[in-house]
Amino acid sequence: MSRFFNVARGVAWRSIHNTVVNPAILVPSIVFPLFFLIAFAGGLSRISDVPNFNYPPGYTAFQFVFVFLQSAAFGGVFTGFAIARDFDSGFARRLLLSAPRRSGIIAGYAIGALLRWMLTGTVVTIAALIAGMNVNGSGIQLFGLIGLGVAMNLAAALWACGVAMFLRTEQAGALIQMPVFVLLFLAPVYVPLSLLTGWIHAVANLNPVTPVLEAGRGLLAGSPVKVAIAFAGLAGAAMLLTAFARRGLASAEKAG
Amino acid sequence: MAVETAIDLPRAGHPSRSAGLVEQTLAVGRRSVVRVFRQRALMIFPMIFPLILFAINGSALSPATRIPGFPTDNYRDFLLAMPFIQGAMFVSITAGVDLARDIESGFLNRLAMTPLRGEAMLLGQLGGALLLGAVQAIVYLLVGVATGVSFASGVGGAVVLLVLSIVISFAFASLGGLLALRFGTGEAVQGIFPLLFVTLFLSSSSLPRNLIKATWFRDIATYNPVSYLIEALRSLVITGWDVQALALGFGFASLLLVISLGLSQSAMRSRLART
Amino acid sequence: MSGSAAIDVEKLVREFRKGPRAVDGIDLSVSPGEIYGFLGPNGAGKSTTVLMLTTLLPPTSGRATVGGYDIVRQGAQVRATIGAALQEAALDAMLTGREHLLLQATLQGLPSTKRRQRAGALLERVGLTEAADRRVGGYSGGMKRRLDLALALVHSPRILFLDEPTTGLDPQSRSALWEEVARLARDEGMTVFLTTQYLEEADALADRIGIIDHGRIVAEGTPPQLKAEIGSPSVEVTPTDPELGDRLAELLSGFGEMRRNGRGSVTVQLPGGEAELAEIVRILDRAEVRVQTLQLHQPSLDDVFLAKTGRKLEGSGDSPIVEAPEGRGRRRRRRGG
Ligand SMILES: Nc1ncnc2c1ncn2[C@@H]1O[C@H](COP(=O)(O)OP(=O)(O)OP(=O)(O)O)[C@@H](O)[C@H]1O
Ligand SMILES: [Mg+2]
To answer: A88: number of CA atoms within 13 Å, CB side?
Structure first.
């Protein structure tokens, strides 16, 4: 087991190191969520004037939860880009050759993704607080919100890891990103689910991201809803995606 | 003397007779177009992405039409302008990355060895992007019409919308070309992309300017020229013939075009730093 | 001489802003129809020189004419006179070989009626007829090089610049390219300026060689001249019994300058040439010194390079052995090593 952790630690270290020393990777992963926060919370705040829009902490908090969870998911996605790049450059092959416990590679990338997102998540939170976000939830409820983010990050990282390892080319980037992006935006991003109509309401209703988002918003507002469903969903996703990532790793091993 | 096995080559014409500007532009443009169409897979994503966003936000933001004073009752009418601008931004990346690749690979040097003129090189290189922009615009227009968007300015307005969006694509493509020529790497061009998107979202792309609540945001949107590009396109859909909006839209698009094309021209000249 | 030279270079210098003096005052002159081999290790300044001579990079100082035109003031005329295949075969992976040639022909201003014919002829010349309508992305390294050469020839240049044309090619492709370059010089009177890291290549192909190191030309001449400068052949004798080294040295000391190599082995210069080998064998036989190996070293460009720069040329030794193209009276075979 210690070999597993050694591999994981090495891979995670490298992933963090690459992020920190390369502004081209670091800056977008911080700036993008901030920008979404500005564009959504700032630009669309009038939407909360729509009749029946009811979220006591206000629109900034409403959008903060989305951006927070989105940045968690994209922290995982960006790691997938890095994996794909590693396979393109041949570095991953060396990793496969030298790692005694290869599943540690997946864990390492996932830990790297988590550490990276912690930075982004902190920045986004500080920005939202500066912008005057109201926080009504209790400490333990906020902890729950962070837990949702961590689980989201993990699920996305596993997904990205699997796709990147199956495809092993930088072109995999679009394929990693698109489904995550679409899934996130097919949740009730701008208004609560109840205000959506038509096909988007039907889709959002079925979207597994919806309960996560609603749970997060509930926790921040101090009136939790669907928290159990959200965590159960994320745990299920993480399990399935772990299997998927391991299959991806196996396929990469087979390809040599 | 060894036996001559190679076939006899016809002698080339006088090298001093150089092809005309038009012929050169067409030759380079042909290549650029061929490149674009042989990488169809790469075309798909930039074309589809704005449509996905249009589909999602067209529905997800439709409650916004219930904000008092919102100019339409169909949010899709309001939003249709957005994919055109987004598509144009993708075109700028395609154009820039393609040109940067030629710089990095030395292909530009190869062309520089011929009597090719800088203008022909630049316009030809942007040709593929321009065509891509036109194809995209037509697709977006068709999708808009198919999803029930109606044009307040009628068929003529749709034509003007196409023309304006092609001018906008050309302007953004020149901007991409300029970045490629200045920095010479694809990453530098890609790096600007988030910035372009920021300017799109910090504009009146999602709500009319007078309905933006945060004043600082409204101010940014007012100073952001992208707002006027969007508003010009949008006016044709939701208002009819709004001369002022159109003048501002065409004005800013042409200004961007003239500036980036002009700067590209001189950047191209120093890039082709042949003596 | 300089009035009629195809390439004439005087005190050419190129300094890079944040880099070294890549080319540090070189002088050279290439006659029409000559193949000039520009030999040097990585980073010596070969490509920088080629870029300046092909007008793609302005020199910092010095002057040069190519085809009688000044490379700074008459760039357009220079470009019309020359063809160049630069170090990176800059090709568009998305285009076919034929499309490349047609584009080049158009930009070079060939009349539209001639372009297809010219493209077809050149494709055949470089053996790419079958691959002509495939995308270059699927070409092998050798095919790309050959296409690159064809592109350089589209406008029938009088002077051809080839920057490391055979680096990365297998022996067959390499010898085919040598063949073609030799043929161009022989049959079409083309002047060829060729850079290479391979001694064999320079030796086999070039009429004259300039050795460049750290931006300076450290030696220049025909291959035999350069070798002659290094002097006579030498022989290395290794006795079966290392103990006999002293005895061996004593026996051979009469021939010329001598060097002990350890393990009893001795190297001795033969000022009288290879003929003295027989005498050595006789002496050793008479003295009953049993010999394990006896190796004759002809002076090679390796030795020239070593003597001029104090270093061995990277890439020497691992370059494959290829038959030299035949046909030009002035050219010799590969050195017998
Ligand atoms: N654009 C540039 N900017 C800065 N330095 C440069 C540039 N181009 C070349 N150099 C430097 O000039 C020197 C000579 O480079 P050059 O490419 O001419 O060498 P070369 O002989 O062609 O080597 P190789 O065999 O590797 O192709 C090198 O030290 C190189 O680092
Ligand atoms: Mg070089």
So the answer is: 12
